[in-house]
Design brief:
Blueprint: H1 2-17, H2 26-35, H3 42-54, E1 59-63, H4 69-77, E2 82-87, H5 90-102, E3 109-113, E4 128-133, H6 140-147, E5 151-160, H7 175-193, E6 197-202, E7 208-213
Helix pairs in contact: 3-4
Bound molecules: S-adenosylmethionine (SAM).
S-adenosylmethionine binds next to α4 and β2.
Length: 215
């Protein structure tokens, strides 16, 4: 009974919140679903856009561009925003570049091609108000360490997939998957305990950690 109620509530919210969605990128989401490219969940994107508005962000750093969906969604939603986004996969980088050219974002998205963990830091210039970490899930902690010097004090870090398909905290039949879940769990705990951040984990989409940099 309780489960049925919960489901109804989430369905209700999903229907209610789609009214605030911008469907300008519907074609891109459809393409990603067809090609099996993982994208941010719709409710997570809504939340991310709301954070951008709340902190009046001017510069966002995204790790993991894929086909450019989130970068475009943020840039289209906030006319003054500049997004720097890093992608290591050549095909994804080519696709995202083509998608950026199709939309009216006036050079407000900079694609940096390369591995975020080994890229020359001089290629990622400036200070950011928000960092969206959405690359390889076992590496989220390393991405944060690499780029946190460029996050302003009071800036926000959002990390996607921190609950990993509701599997976090469980053991599966796959050793490889268990290893990944352990790494995500370790990072979740480290970030919660890190005195340099105020962090809350939200059960939105696939799980979003939101951390505010204190110093
Ligand atoms: C979940 S997808 C990103 C989705 C995108 N943020 C969105 O919502 O539209 C993850 C992407 O991160 C990229 N990636 C993974 N590890 C990376 C790394 N070390 N450096 C740069 N890109 C990385 C993958 O190639 C993949 O395209």
């Amino acid at each position: 009974m309780l489960f049925a109620m919960k489901k109804t509530t989430s369905e209700y919210l999903e229907r209610l919140n789609t009214r605030v969605d911008d469907d300008a990128l519907f074609a891109l989401r459809t393409l990603a679903e067809k090609e099996g490219v993982p994208l941010i969940a719709a409710e997570s994107l809504r939340f991310l856009k709301q954070i951008v508005r709340m902190i009046d962000a001017e510069r966002v750093l995204e790790i993991g561009t894929a086909i450019g969906y989130t970068s475009l969604a943020l840039a289209l939603d906030a006319p003054g925003l500049h997004v720097v986004t890093i992608e290591r996969n050549e095909t994804m980088a080519r696709l995202s570049r083509a998608h950026f050219a199709e939309y009216d974002v006036e050079g407000r998205i900079t694609l940096v091609e390369g591995d975020a963990l080994s890229i020359d830091p001089a290629r990622i210039e400036g200070v950011f108000d928000l960092m969206f970490i959405d690359g390889a899930k076992a590496q989220s902690g390393r991405f944060l360490k690499r780029f946190e010097p460029q996050l302003r004090r009071g800036g926000v870090v959002v990390i996607d997939n921190v609950l990993f398909r509701e599997l976090i905290g469980t053991r599966t039949a796959s050793r490889h998957l268990n290893q990944l879940l352990r790494k995500i769990d370790t990072f979740n705990r480290e970030l919660i305990d890190d005195p340099a951040y105020d962090t809350v984990v939200h059960p939105i989409g696939d799980g979003l950690s939101v951390a505010i940099k204190k110093r």
